[in-house]
């Protein structure tokens, strides 16, 4: 294995999205037992170095593949031949049917920033957040459900079409998450210390 | 594979352990007197450097040159710790970014102090095995950042130990529990020690210990409990004995010996009140004796907000693990401070489960370190430990914004690659600023180091492609490599740690590391006996100033004679005589002590009556 091996190959899997979580975990433990630095202490330094690189690769691959959304983001990157995470994979794009609604949300956020939040404003923002969270979940279900199944069944010729659909759905999701984050921040300014960098 | 020992380098106490080859179980190595705990205290005395209980006895006598709780300063900047420095009797000054301790005109770094403790444990283990030992696993709080981990590893090197693995304390504890097959499933480890707090959520199954999330506060522990109790005592003494203090113009807060005694009294009261509901405290001062009853409720009121501070990290860790309290199979308590009943209560309320501590919370981390050492030595092959990095790692980008490369709770080892280029034609050097933390702005995160990538061939701006690999190894420590892609040649990376020691510092410290007074048993006993004599003399002198009039002239003469006898022999090498004279002086003052206690009690009762009268009126 080397750095040019992709995450699917690390786990001996075909480039498909239907992955059994239990089997993935079992394979992860097996690979960890083989490469984790804990079991390499008496190996020569060069061997240790190599195992360390592989162990890091196994961990990153597992982290990516066990999360159904991260798995799709990675697949898109792989299909487009982008090796590193440099440059964001998808540019956030607003879902067209929500343009008007999101415009309103942004106005509400501007107002909240200028003059603070009363109870009514707070309730409205919270209701908006809940609606957008539900919409975001819908997009995720589309990604991991119908579209993922499409990918696994698509012929090589049909794949670019599915990748394009993935990208559109990921862009919508990324956009919704940005707005949801802004709403969360407005509703709970104290939670700022706990920002988890969704956007990077 | 040579033998590897496991060391718990604690804020208050440190221990060393190993796994017994015949039983396969971890065991603590005691000192020659059977004591498992080595107090993490180092005292610089004219007789040499003392460590452990010997140093502990110097706390009150040599407050300026006796260093305790140094773990709280490890890998820290002066700015980080300056608020608590006024409570420390020894002097801490900023030097090249880090906090350094001033001992009699010379500067000592926190890793050098820790090295004295590590060396004592190393020698203890060497005596036990009758062979030289060079390798150790050393535990750190899970929430320690890169600088704090580096500082711990530096301490090992200065002590002549190759720290083959830094392991997180709650994870180590789970290994000890796991070896005994006590729990399987999803486990929360709540670890509140002398100076640090950690919480880790693990999934334990079939010998696999997978850490799902960790959180904590590296500046929260029993020391903070002691401090609030101490300040409360100080206020109470000042209020009750206002007149005495004003008459003699004594400012207790300015007297390091008094403050140290108060701290020790606060700690002792806290410990007692973990098993009993109420206790009395008697503290003799130069002109009065302070006497009062303290209840568990008093302590709980004082520490409530500190205990509360541990709950936020608990919730966050659970959230990061994607779990609810009901999904947990067990909650385990680690660290001496979990003996405090309020801590147990609040943990139980939070998780809705009675927390467990079948293995001694003071020993369990060292036992787990020994298990990890045995895994590394190849003696245990059926356990797999997968730990995580506690803090997100990122680089500062334009506008001071952090771009996260490795998010917190990522399984280690882990790596991230990033491409960098130049912004000016002919530029041959690129600077990177690496930070750790959860905030969006670099200035709010912990600065780890600045990396200088040099040796880039002069090219038009944007042409060079430098691939930088950030690797967090199994110790949770960052390693950076850089390569210019076009030429394939490795770029040189120079690291300037923000709050750490550079290689040259460490090497110098290894050269002139302190060898603590490795006196033979007889010499140490002599020192202890002398110390004991000095303590008794100090107490008697104080008592005589205060209670001279309580005893008859004959008795006074007897006491004075006993004081003289002890004063004459205390600096000699005759341990037996010093010991005998100390006993004699103790005996001569028994009656005086009783009388003074009675007087203090009477005064306490009277003041209580006065309070009652005030209330009823």
Topology summary:
The complex is a heterodimer of chains A (200) and B (617).
Chain A (H helix, E strand, L loop, with lengths): L6 H4 L10 H15 L9 H22 L1 H12 L19 H17 L3 H35 L5 H29 L13
Chain B lengths: L3 E6 L3 E7 L6 E3 L9 E2 L2 E4 L2 E4 L1 H4 L9 E2 L10 H4 L9 E5 L2 E6 L2 E3 L1 H20 L5 E6 L5 H13 L3 E7 H11 L5 E8 L4 E9 L2 E10 L4 H19 L1 H7 L7 H17 L5 E7 L4 E7 H14 L1 H10 L9 E5 L6 H11 L12 H13 L7 E3 L1 E2 L3 E4 L5 E5 L3 E2 L2 E7 L9 E7 L9 E9 L11 E7 L5 E7 L7 E6 L5 H9 L9 H27 L5 H17 L5 H14 L1 H27 L1
Parallel strand pairs in B: 1-11, 11-12, 13-18, 15-19
Antiparallel strand pairs in B: 1-2, 2-3, 2-4, 5-6, 5-7, 8-9, 9-10, 13-14, 14-15, 16-17, 20-23, 21-22, 21-25, 24-27, 25-26, 26-29, 27-28
Helix pairs in contact in B: 3-4, 5-12, 6-8, 6-9, 14-16, 15-16
Subunit arrangement of the protein? heterodimer
Low-pLDDT stretches of chain B = 609-617
Order of helices and strands of chain A: HHHHHHH
- Radius of gyration of chain B over alpha carbons? 27 Å
Query: What is the overall shape of chain B?
Result: globular
- End-to-end separation of chain A in angstroms reads 29 Å
Helical proportion of chain B, percent range:
25-40%
The major beta sheet of chain B can be summarized as: 6 strands, mixed
Mean pLDDT of chain A: 85
